[in-house]
Design brief:
By secondary structure, this protein is an alpha+beta fold. It contains 4 helices and 7 strands; from the N terminus they run H-E-H-E-E-H-E-E-H-E-E. Strands 2-4-5-7-6 form a 5-stranded mixed β-sheet. A two-stranded antiparallel sheet has the order 1-3.
């Protein structure tokens, strides 16, 4: 996992100021094609007593690597299920805005203190209360690098209670695109 993260971050740094041609951006990715990793977590959520809700608003479409974007959304979903706690609700949502697409994972668990939000996207950084749980502190840094690689960003906000993790990407308004 560390080698993968190092390669992804190095790729993102190389491409930050230069060409991003290495990223497969030659196809449209309707968000509904990768925005339902929630289905992969139904049994896990049920076993943990967590309600998992998934929805798509509008026709969100972006350009990008389907596998990287799916992995990023699955990481956010996995984190929400891991940290929200029994009895929580986790909402996975894809929305279309004027010129952006957002993939949102929101929970009503304990959240991340505002003072820690900037740090949790650093590689290997973990909150004190999560150190006893499995993980190595790479997940959110990989999600942030994936969003950046796709000309987007990862936003973390207070859900009062809980956390809203939002990947914001450019909307694809490509001629000839039609929803399936």
């Amino acid at each position: 996992m560390t080698d993968f993260a190092e390669r992804l971050v190095a790729k993102q740094r190389r491409n930050r100021h230069g060409s991003r041609a290495a990223l497969r951006r030659d196809f449209h990715v309707p968000v509904d094609n990768f925005a339902y990793p929630a289905g992969r977590y139904d049994a896990t959520a049920e076993a943990q007593g967590i309600t998992l809700v998934s929805e798509i608003e509008g026709q969100p479409v972006t350009l990008g690597d389907k596998n990287l974007l799916t992995s990023a959304l699955m990481n956010l979903t996995d984190n929400a299920l891991k940290y929200a706690g029994s009895g929580a609700t986790v909402r996975v949502c894809a929305t279309q805005h004027r010129d952006t697409v957002s993939m949102i994972v929101q929970d009503n668990g304990p959240g991340i203190p505002s003072a820690e939000r900037a740090r949790v996207v650093e590689r290997f950084y973990r909150l004190d209360q999560s150190r006893s749980l499995p993980g190595n502190g790479l997940g959110l840094s990989i999600v942030a690098a994936t969003a950046s690689l796709h000309w987007g960003k990862l936003e973390l906000a207070d859900a009062a209670p809980g956390l809203v993790a939002r990947i914001v990407l450019p909307l694809c308004c490509c001629p000839g695109w039609r929803p399936l």
